[in-house]
TrEMBL record:
The chain crosses the membrane at residues 44-67, 73-96, 131-151, 195-217, 286-304, 324-345, 388-408, 414-433, 445-471. Belongs to the amino acid/polyamine transporter 2 family. Amino acid/auxin permease (AAAP) (TC 2.A.18.1) subfamily. This is Amino acid transporter transmembrane domain-containing protein. It comes from Malus domestica. GO terms for molecular function: symporter activity. Carrier protein involved in proton-driven auxin influx. Mediates the formation of auxin gradient from developing leaves (site of auxin biosynthesis) to tips by contributing to the loading of auxin in vascular tissues and facilitating acropetal (base to tip) auxin transport within inner tissues of the root apex, and basipetal (tip to base) auxin transport within outer tissues of the root apex. May be involved in lateral roots and nodules formation.
Amino acid sequence: MGENIATRNQLQFHNSPAFDVSLDVQGGSKIVDEDGRLIRTGTLWTASSHIITAVIGSGVLSLTWAIAQLGWIAGPVVMVMFSFITYYTSTLLVSCYRDPVTGKRSCTYSDAVRSHLGKVQVKMCGFIQQLNLFGTTIGYTVTAAISMVAIKRSTCFHNSGGKDPCLTSSNPYMLAFGISEIILSQIPNFDKLSWLSIVAAFMSFTYSGIGLALGIAKVAENGKIKGSMSGMSIGVVTPAQKMWRTFQALGDIAFAFSYSIILIEIQDTVKSPPCETKTMKKATQLSLAVTSIFYILCGCMGYAAFGDLAPGNLLTDKGLSSPFWLIDIANAAIVIHLVGAYQVFAQPIFALVEKTAAKFFPDSQFITKDIKITIPRLGSYNLNLFSLVWRTLFVILTTVISMILPFFNNVVGFLGALGYWPLTVYFPVEMYIAQKKIPKWSMRWICLEILSFCVLAIALCAAGGSVTGVVHDLKVYRPFKTSN
């Protein structure tokens, strides 16, 4: 009864044809790999869909606003810079998937840090990773609710001819999103999320494509390209506001490229041969190339359409509003995408808590015992009461916090600042240095450390800008109130 609960969960759907994992051991088919865990079936395409699902999220909606703070020169340059930094450090990270001494696979990001940097660093990494994953689920809940409210208000405005102010609270929509996540959180692990990630990735292209197309149409309607070389000008905002907004924009862009937090977990679903590292480098290259092009096009076309007064959220915050039915489709796609993305980011938290609980309480029937439930035409499902209760409480907690702090841009910026440097840059760089035994003060070591330090400085500035924004919002916001 004290087995690894994550391992047990990986096996619990093997009798279900709905999840395509039915394998006959007696017939010679393998259901476990060399580590005694369910055999991995992930490919370049499933890994890419997971990455795209994680990358193209709420971050794309704030890029127009971010470029408006930076201007035509710095905006695109910063986006390209973050894209290259993310790709480079991601290749370092996937190279550290296996233990440098034993060759054992790392199931999680923390396992990789433990293998390369030791127990002290892994504690810091685990805390930052779980905090960032937790924060991201809150950000996704806020964003999904905002999009659902936008659909409601769009329909209301259309039906009333613009006469009704259409005051709408986001709280019921956050509750609806939370209920859907309680149900989906019973999916056991990443191996069972491929179908959800593929759907979510398709939704990403849908709303990004609509935003891009409508941005182009808006520019054509205006008959000119708006914006300036330096972004939001002094006079419209104070010098202090310009500085903090610029810092917050850096955090928004960093958040848009933050996915390394779950890269090792994604890599652990990839089958071998070929080598997992080769597959993941190709998946990273493909995914970042696609998402970066979308990001730059969406951000720049939105800025060209709205100029320095670009909205905080391209599809909801006084941004694109017609044709209303197409905007509704885009916002619906955002909601569907975030339903899947929430699970992609929540699963590592679920796995950690359940694994830890099974380790400390191996004889607890509540934690380790499964209840077999037969589902007609789908096979059987092993219900674990601890997983059911714990995952439900987690979703409830993130939903309540989202209802208290529904600040889109500032939450996005803070999450980007919080997680980008340590998880996307610092730990991959330090692990790579340890793995390759790069001599201290060598040219390569100096270049890697300079990269890490520069991104740290950017992250600190971004965090300052976002915190300042949250403080400003809290001065005027009243929780659980209807907003316009």
